[in-house]
Amino acid sequence: MSSVKPISRLTLAALALAVVPAVAAQSVADSSPFRPLDLPAPNTIRTGSGRPGPDYWQQRADYRIRATLDPERRELAGRETIHYVNHSPDRLPYLWLHLEQNICEPGSVTNQLDQPPLVFLGSTFDFSCQGGRGGLTLESITLLGRALPHVVFGTTMRVDLPRPLLPGAAIDLEVVWRFPVPDNGAGRMGRDGTLYELGQWYPRVAVYDDVRGWNHEPYIGAGEFYLEYGSFDVAITVPAPYVVAATGVLQNPLEVLTAAQRARLARARTSDTAIAIIRADEAGDPARTRPRPTGTLTWRFHADSVRDFAFAAAPNFRWDASGWQGIYVHTFYRPAATLWVEANRMVREAVRYYSEQWYHYPYSHISSIEGPIEGMEYPMMTFDPAGPARIDLQWVLAHELGHQWVPMVVGSNERLYPWMDEGFNTFIDLGNAAQYFKGDPYGDSIEVHPLHLYKDHAIPGLEQPLIDRPVEVHDLFWGGYQKPALMMQLLRYKVLGKERFDPAFREYLKTWAFRHPTPADFFRIMRDQSGQELDWFWRAWVYTTARLDQAVDSVVTRDGVTEVHLSSRGTMVMPADLLVTLADPAGKVELHTAALPVDMWNLGSRFVYRLRAPGTVRQVQVDPDEALPDVDRSNNRWPR
């Protein structure tokens, strides 16, 4: 048997040092919910504070359009000059344009795929244009009288320039086009009998920005629009019996309005209540509503600092108008739309609410048009349905109006981030609806609507992150509208509080008015203005489908101190509201509440709340108001 020599202390020390490198080589991934988001690095264009930097730039596109609507042929034909200014530091060898009417072209992606309609509760948006004729005929595109080579790819077109457009330079493109107006075209514009609602009706330049270069994602329905700001001078020729409502200020009222209508409009500008510009007994009678009943009339409009232009025309409009702080509120509707008698008041109150609460409405007027479109927004104009009930009408009028703030003024990219416009808009709509119907059950409960929808839509395995493109989202009603509204509500009421949230959101709207913010810009300005780190919040709500499960694990009392053991069992962290019910020896009950900030989870998923108060603990409950989307409320209370 061999002998075993004892190991010296020096040998033990050497062995210990030998294993240190192996231990140090092991790495642990940062899985903290508070780790920083991986955002684009700030620079002199978009700063770390979420604001435009000294080198921020964006392109400008001004349009001069002459269009003719021919109801007999159901065709719209136009000629336009696009004055495009290159404010970027880049040489541009070509331009990209949108031709959205090609969504209805027989060979389009949507017609080939024959996708099912997009359903929002009771509303259906059919983007397939199945069975209808459609598609834009591009008759010419020229520069200084010379035809430009171009290639059409469905709803987009690349136009090659004879020489690159240099930084600071501008060009004028001349485009001639026409298309048949489809019935309910692509869910957002179209025709219903003699009523025409015209949106995305002219070729327009795509956005070229510092983030992605050309933004030329095709238009296939679910994703809406991302456009440059500029001015519009538009002349629209229609049959004389038709009345036209449009983006922009009417430039020739003496030619297209009667003396009675002009006088009524002058009174409406300072009226708190609606004045009938075209009364019910006049609607549809061109001898009473038109300067002349036969031939054609040309309506001329001008708009500045807008990203789009839309118009509507019909021979039988009723027309109401009122004013708020010099802003005209117009409502145009057909005689059968009896609910619309209240529409003007609904829109006016919403203009006032959004302006006073968030950002003052910057344009001269807003026109709401009743028709077949279930709801669509354009600068200074919305298309809205007749409405099956009063609350439905108020919601759709105020919702489409709310888009004047996002994305008409704050121009985010709707093709990629619907939560930044539909979601933000739904959030502000909830407060407006609660105010308008204050005192009745609908008004007093509407703000909790998104929370009540959570269990039916936030389904594990089916729910998708908000950051997904709208064309990939199966439940856009939730992912584009209701979930981001819930996110904003919780940020306002449960994370920051109104005193921090409201100034920060107002700062975002003011700072990015008439500019193009990205998600990173929004995240950064909310952090910078509120003074609170929020990466943990955006990660859970925007980039993942994290779920919240707060629990009361146990309660222990010793030496006069009650320890409430809490845990965060889900994949989302949030602040916690706590309600402790105490009883003294005489049986008197006392309620103790605590609002615990999200920092309670800094050291992990367990937290001990220490309460120094006399009495016996009868009950402890986390989230007692059930204000959070907790997926398992069975563990929210102690004892079980």
Low-pLDDT sequence parts: 1-7, 9-20
Task: Tell how many strands the DSSP assignment holds.
Answer: 33
The proportion of residues in beta strands is: 25-35%
**The level-1 CATH class of the domain at 55-223:** Mainly Beta
Total of DSSP H or I helical runs spanning 4+ residues: 15
Give the neighbour order of strands across the main sheet. 7-6-10-2-1-16-20-18
State the end-to-end CA separation. Answer: 65 Å
Classify the fold: give the CATH topology of the domain at 55-223. Immunoglobulin-like
Main structural class: alpha+beta
Gyration radius (Cα, Å) is 30 Å
Label the overall shape.
Answer: globular
What's the architecture of the domain at 55-223, going by CATH? Sandwich
How much helix is in the residues? 10-25%
Q: Characterize the main sheet.
A: 8 strands, mixed
What's the average pLDDT? 93
